[in-house]
């Protein structure tokens, strides 16, 4: 199966149908600040470097500098203990939220997550700080490496502004754009960062869009995250199909996933 087909298959139920993948509804009044305090209680106030790579990621100004900072206020990120816990849908959503907050300023909502059939994924809507445009969707998808052809991993015809490089740990990083998605319209823009890791038998795909399934054809000028930020998220060493840092799993206990 070609990579493009594999990605289409991987996210076939993501977008307007993604809510069907997740269970529960988002608890009214649950704020990002509350979860940040829960996370901060586990570790120190030292910032965690979080990295993102995705198969369908659109970032604003992919050719320019990425925004940096945290969302809401300057809430510190905890130092992760190094302990792991079994992966959960809400845990993946919290991990994605923290990763996004580490590389871009804004707010997140409509958290979704799913762990099933050997894959895991999470999605959220991200509102860049100061923007009055609709939020863009950000998603992470964790898959077995067999879901993609290769190696060697190369740019494919549909990938624009594509770059492939080998990382020092042996993983491969592939970043690219795939605009004009049929699901989101000709004006849609998608930036993608993808990590292919033979040593972990893992494919990590992180994407950002300039729109979302609920936006009704409205768009940001660019995706809500840029390739450098997506790359930071995707290259985190703790992404796994079976476990996550215990801090994210425990914080997920306070998060009821959105279903709409």
Automatic annotation (TrEMBL):
<keyword id="KW-0812">Transmembrane</keyword>
<keyword id="KW-0472">Membrane</keyword>
<feature type="transmembrane region" description="Helical">
    <location>
        <begin position="38"/>
        <end position="59"/>
    </location>
</feature>
<keyword id="KW-1133">Transmembrane helix</keyword>
<feature type="compositionally biased region" description="Polar residues">
    <location>
        <begin position="65"/>
        <end position="78"/>
    </location>
</feature>
<protein>
    <submittedName>
        <fullName>Uncharacterized protein</fullName>
    </submittedName>
</protein>
<feature type="region of interest" description="Disordered">
    <location>
        <begin position="65"/>
        <end position="85"/>
    </location>
</feature>
């Amino acid at each position: 199966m070609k990579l493009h087909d594999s990605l289409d298959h991987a996210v076939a139920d993501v977008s307007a149908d993604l809510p069907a993948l997740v269970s529960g509804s988002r608890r009214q009044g649950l704020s990002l600040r509350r979860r940040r305090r829960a996370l901060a209680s586990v570790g120190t106030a030292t910032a965690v470097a979080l990295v993102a790579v995705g198969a369908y990621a659109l970032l604003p100004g992919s050719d320019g500098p990425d925004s940096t900072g945290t969302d809401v206020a300057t809430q510190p990120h905890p130092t992760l203990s190094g302990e792991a816990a079994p992966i959960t849908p809400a845990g993946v959503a919290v991990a994605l939220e923290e990763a996004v907050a580490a590389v871009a300023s804004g707010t997140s909502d409509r958290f979704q997550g799913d762990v099933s059939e050997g894959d895991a994924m999470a999605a959220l809507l991200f509102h860049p700080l100061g923007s009055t445009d609709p939020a863009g969707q950000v998603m992470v998808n964790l898959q077995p490496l067999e879901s993609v052809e290769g190696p060697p991993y190369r740019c494919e015809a549909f990938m624009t502004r594509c770059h492939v490089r080998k990382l020092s740990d042996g993983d491969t990083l592939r970043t690219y754009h795939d605009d004009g998605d049929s699901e989101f319209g000709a004006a849609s823009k998608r930036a993608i960062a993808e990590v292919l890791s033979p040593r972990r038998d893992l494919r990590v795909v992180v994407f950002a869009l300039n729109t979302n399934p609920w936006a009704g054809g409205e768009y940001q000028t660019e995706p809500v995250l840029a390739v450098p930020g997506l790359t930071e998220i995707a290259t985190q060493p703790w992404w796994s199909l079976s476990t996550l840092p215990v801090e994210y799993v425990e914080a997920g206990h306070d998060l009821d996933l959105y279903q709409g």
